[in-house]
Amino acid sequence: MALSQSVPFSATELLLASAIFCLVFWVLRGSRPRVPKGLKSPPEPWGWPLLGHVLTLGKNPHLALSRMNQLYGDVLQIRIGSTPVLVLSSLDTIRQALVRQGDDFKGRPDLYSFTFITDGQSMSFSPDSGPVWAARRHLAQKALNTFSIASDPEEHVSKEAEALINRLQELMVGPGHFDPYNQVVVSVANVIGAMCFGQHFPESSDEMLSLVKNSHEFVESASSGNPVDFFPILRYLPNPALQRFKAFNQRFQRFLQKTVQEHYQDFDKVSPGYRWRGAPLDNWEMLVSLFLSSFLSHLTLHGSGFDTIATASSWSLMYLVTRPEIQRKIQKELDAVIGRGRRPWLSDRPQLPYLEAFILETFRHSSFVPFTIPHSPCHIFSSWLLSPGPGSLWGDPSEFRPERFLTAQGTTINKPLSEKIMLEKIMLFGMGKCRCIGEVLGKWEVFLFLAILLQQLDFSMPPGVKVDLTPIYGLTMKHARCEHFQARLRFSIK
């Protein structure tokens, strides 16, 4: 009797505790990825049981992974929950995966959040990478090429840039200041819309403007490593960000379907001159419908659509107001090459090397696309982690110095270096079989917008106002909103 009283646990309790321990051990052991025999597992930092590296990644995964990259190298593995995620960060490994082994990495993981994007049919976010996906992509690419020639995107950019200049002058007369991102994002979306819809583009549509101005509701949830994709229970708990993400995608889907239907109603079935691979397009309606659904879902919100282009343009303006001497050098080049009697055109691009170097340096220094959209089965390719350290190719990577992209004479772009930056540091348009189909148009638009704006306007900040250039994590990393921008007209082109 005395012996039984000295034992703190009964046999049943000990058995139950042992069973629970074995169950937890089995769950934890099973949650670890199993490496096939003969293969070596990538290095992996220590992570919490069940949670993995979620707490380590925090709100700024690009910074956390940068620290891991320095310790574990260019190929490492993390876990989000129990899901292993491979992170690649060197140019050679990324090229090996996306180019040399493109068929193995062209798909997307089947993530919960992706199902809300254009009803799960987006070319950028859908897990489908089979023949149907390839056919849709091929059709969208061909249609984009056709529309690019027919719709004259250069003229659209030029007209919209002039409209933006007029809006900024009105804002300076009124409030006396403005938020550059709010203004640029509308203009960029107008260009893409005008190219798709021509004269039928609903520029005055309140619905379209609302979607454009609230695109942050998309990018804040569509980034790599969203916890809701890896912890199913979060789908049933209060999640304001997820609800905004769902609502935004539903609004966009309704707008897209409405626009396609309007084109069906307005379509002139006897319009001559449209040909596909040399043959008349008898079923042009189908092409327009498929093109709009593919092009808009792939570009308008993602890739080289308005978010990427607007973010690039707005970062450029931020660098210009914090470095007025660079703004003056660009304007001096514009005055010397173009003068004040006409607008800049794309044909002027080779004669404006300093402006081109400035754009490349903006891409390099801001690195505003930290990760590619995840590839299947679950891989993250990081352009942020490709940021070189001291003594590397860039020498002084923390300095903003456009001259690094010029030749020694300073009269032309250093092409090998510019090609390297487009591949290595800023995979804005992806690589391999998932490379964005609108890459060329995106680069054109950024260049032409900046050339026209800087030819006619001086951008500045009021004295004493500090500009915050700290990037805010997301699918595309924005700078802090700044409502104190000012613009003064240098001259006017009639």
Keywords:
Cytochrome p450; 3-stranded mixed beta sheet; mainly alpha; two-stranded antiparallel sheet; 494 residues; heme; single chain; 7 strands; disordered N terminus; endoplasmic reticulum
Mean pLDDT: 76
- The CATH superfamily appears as Cytochrome P450
Q: Please state the structural category.
A: mainly alpha
The CATH class turns out to be Mainly Alpha
Tally the beta strands. 7
Percent strand equals: 5-15%
SSE string, helix = H, strand = E?
HHHHEEHHHHHHHHEEHHHHEHHEE
Major sheet characteristics: 3 strands, mixed
CATH architecture: Orthogonal Bundle
Question: How many structurally independent domains?
Answer: 1
Instruction: Tell me roughly what share of residues is in helical segments.
Output: 40-55%
- In what order do the strands lie side by side in the largest sheet? 1-2-5
In DSSP terms, counting alpha (H) and pi (I) runs of 4 or more, how many helices?
18
Cα-based radius of gyration, to the nearest Å: 26 Å
Shape type? globular
Span from first to last CA? 106 Å
CATH structural fold name: Cytochrome p450
Low-confidence stretches: 1-7, 270-287, 293-298, 300-304
